[in-house]
Every structure is written in C-alpha cells, then in structure tokens.
Amino acid sequence: MAMAGRIRSTLPLFNRIVRSDSLSPYSHRSTLHQTLLCPELSKNYSTASPKKEEKVKVPIAMFGGSGKYASALYLAAAKGNALDKVESELLDLVESSKRSSMFSQFTKDLTVPAKTRVKAINDICDQAKFSDITKNFLVLLAEYGRLKYIESIAKRFVELTMAHKGEVKAIVTTVIPLPPQEEKELKETLQEIIGQGKQVKLEQKIDPSILGGILVEFSQKVFDLSIKTRAKQMERFLREPVNIGPL
User: Nearest Cα to 17, choosing from 93, 98, 127, 167?
Assistant: First the structure.
C-alpha cells in the first residue's frame, strides 16, 4: 500500500530522533486524552461545529483497555466522519510494524523517553499524512507507553467499524484453502444463519494442526468440525468405562 510505503520510508527517523540530544518539548495532552477525561470536549474532533451536535454511540460494547481506547477513537472518528480513513491508517501502521523489527521494537521499548516517542510519532504521522484524529490518538498512546497495544486496539476498532456497517466476520480454519465454490456455499450458508440486514465477511486461516475438517467462528459462536476435535471426542469415549450391567 502506498501509505504503508510512506510509513516505512520514515523509519530512519527513529535513529535520528532517539539519538538526538535536544528534542523540542511536545504539546499538552492530546485532544483524545481530554476526550477520555472530559467527554464534553470530544467535539474538538469534529471537522464541523454544528450548533446541535449529533449524538454518536459505539455499535457494540467493548471491554478491557484496548476496547476502551478503540471505543474512544471510534467516537472521535465517527464525529469527524472519518471512520474509513482512520481504520485504513491504523491498519497501515500495524502492517508497517510487522514488516519492520526496528519499528516494532520501538513501540514496545518503554525505556525510550516519552517525549522521544511523541516526537517520533509526530514525525511519522506528518510524513505519512495521517489525519489529525489518528495522529492525536497515536500521540496519546506514545505519551503513556501504550503503543505496544496498537495491534489489539486496531483489531477492536475494526470490529466496531464492521458492526457499524452491519458486517459479521467469520473465521474459517482449514488444512488447505477452500475451493472457490465451497467458499461460496459456506458463505451463503452462514448468511442464512445470520439473516438479513448483515453481511458475512469470510476470513480463511490455514492450520495443519486441525488435521482435517473445518472450524468456523463467528458472532461468538464456534462450529468445530475438525478431525482433531473428533479424534479427541472419540478418545474420551473409548476411555469411558463400559457399564455392561447384570447378566
């Protein structure tokens, strides 16, 4: 992706920034942090300033640290009418982290001073031309040493955007990729189960350890038809004592 390329091109900034003896002081706490502390200040994220602000809610409840951060970012992006852009920017950043061991290490290394982390993230976001919403959010994570959770936060954010669009993610695990016709039939079957008003998004995973069969996960449901699970069930059955009863 072009944006991911722009992010990777900024990675040399890390060496210069981390080694710098004098860093310009970073600004006050980000707008998103103000949003988390004072919800009424969340209107600062909106690109417009209507007299009556439209109330925005998260489509599904999120729990845990990553869920709370993702929910706060979702509200900011929704109010700024920038859900798709923010999602794309987050996923590009996560992809860049996977491809660069230096960047990945940087996000996890809490020995790097907070102001160094903030300076680096500001420079990267400027180079990648990220939106202010994404930039402010990443600055918040850098300031408080939460960059290491960016991947889990991004996953939760995607769950929120999918729920907003009425999409349901189904993870299909097999030993080998499903043929196109079988994938189509499975998707149609899941669509019938989920019903109208929602769209199934299939994600295929390859896992030789299941030995064969298929494992389908969606909407907090699991259909385990793998050979591995069947073998375990058969083993438990064979180990159970047989009660023949009186002759």
Answer: 127
Task: Give tens-digit pLDDT for 93-103.
Answer: 999 889 988 98
Q: Which residue has the tokens 């600062």?
A: 44
Q: Check: CB of residue 223 under 8 Å from CB of residue 215.
A: yes
Q: From residue 238, how far is each of 224, 226, 227 by CA, in Å? A: 20, 19, 16
Confidence of residue 208 (pLDDT cuts 50, 70, 90): very high
Write the pLDDT tens digit of every residue in 46-74.
444 555 566 888 988 888 999 999 999 99
Write the DSSP assignment of the chain as a string of letters: -HHHHHHHHTTTHHHHHHH-S--PPP-SS-HHHHHHH-GGGGGGG-SS--SSPPP---SS---HHHHHHHHHHHHHHHHTT-HHHHHHHHHHHHHHHHH-HHHHHHHH-TTS-HHHHHHHHHHHHHHHT--HHHHHHHHHHHHTT-GGGHHHHHHHHHHHHHHHHTEEEEEEEESSPPPHHHHHHHHHHHHHHH-TT-EEEEEEEE-GGG-SEEEEEETTEEEEEEHHHHHHHHHHHHHSPP-----
**Residue 216 β-bridge partners:** 172, 223
Partner residues linked to 199 by β-bridges: 167
**What is the C-alpha radius of gyration for the chain, rounded to an integer number of angstroms?**
23
Could you give the CA distance from residue 181 to residue 199 in angstroms, rounded to a whole number?
18
167 forms beta bridges with 199
d(CA 33, CA 53): 20
